[in-house]
Amino acid sequence: MKLKICGLQTIQDIEYVNQADIDYAGFVFAPSRQYITVKTAQTLKKALNPKIKVVGVFVNELPDFIKNLVADKIIDLVQFHGNTEFALPCPTIRAYRMRTKADITPTKCDFALFDSYTTGTDGSTGKTFDWRLIADYKDKPFFLAGGINIDNLQAAMTYNPYCIDISSGAEQNGIKSKSKILEIAKAVKEFNL
């Protein structure tokens, strides 16, 4: 099982995930409290361990903007939120905001991502959804997101996602926490043994 820490914004955040030896780092290019600019993303990517892949997070973004980030090797995967999805020369992830099983629609993306539905926001709600909705999902390897933290991590991993995706669950007072990131990474590694 892989681990993604999403919403990285500072060099300090990068130092924490490098130390934790995670699999994916999430850079948010959509309007949110975790938004970063392309310039910041370039700086963070340079400091990131090259074996950690960067996932760019987008909500209804214009294709050219995303294609440029991929071409410039600032991001390695693309995570689509909202209504847009298109082919790219890199792996892609379709995000679903879960209320019922009917929220899962067909996708040509390589991965699915299941997150909580909250009115007025497209992600990083810090709330879980009913994971039983995805208990029998087999179409694509999937990322499980939405309110996962050290307290419910073991339960989340029993659903056998390809990757656990944590954002606010790796924070203290809205800032990424070194101790939480290391603790979460250790738990995922132990689960894989």
Task: Provide an overview of this structure.
The protein is α/β, with parallel strands linked by helices and about 190 residues long. About 25% of the residues lie in helices and about 25% in strands. The protein has helices spanning about 10-20, 40-45, 65-70, 155, 180-190, and strands at about 1-5, 25-30, 55-60, 75-80, 90-100, 110-115, 140-145, 165, 170, 175. Helix 1 (about 10-20) runs parallel beside helix 5. The chain is globular, with a radius of gyration of 15 Å.
Written as H for each helix and E for each strand, in order along the chain, the element string is EHEHEHEEEEHEEEH
- Average pLDDT number: 94
What portion of residues belong to β-strands?
15-25%
Spatial sequence of strands, sheet with the most strands: 1-2-3-4-5-6-7-8
- What is the distance, rounded to the nearest whole angstrom, between the alpha carbons of the first and last residues? 10 Å
How much helical structure, as a percent, in the residues? 25-40%
Structural class: alpha/beta
For this entry, give a set of tags.
alpha/beta; 193 residues; 8-stranded parallel barrel
Question: What does this entry show, briefly?
Answer:
The chain has 193 residues and is of the alpha/beta class. It is built from 5 helices and 10 strands; from the N terminus they run βαβαβαββββαβββα.
Layout of strands and helices, then pairs:
Elements: E1 2-6, H1 11-20, E2 24-28, H2 38-47, E3 53-59, H3 63-71, E4 77-81, E5 92-98, E6 111-116, E7 142-144, H4 153-157, E8 163-166, E9 171-172, E10 175-176, H5 178-192
Parallel strand pairs: 1-2, 1-8, 2-3, 3-4, 4-5, 5-6, 6-7, 7-8
Antiparallel strand pairs: 9-10
Helix pairs in contact: 1-5
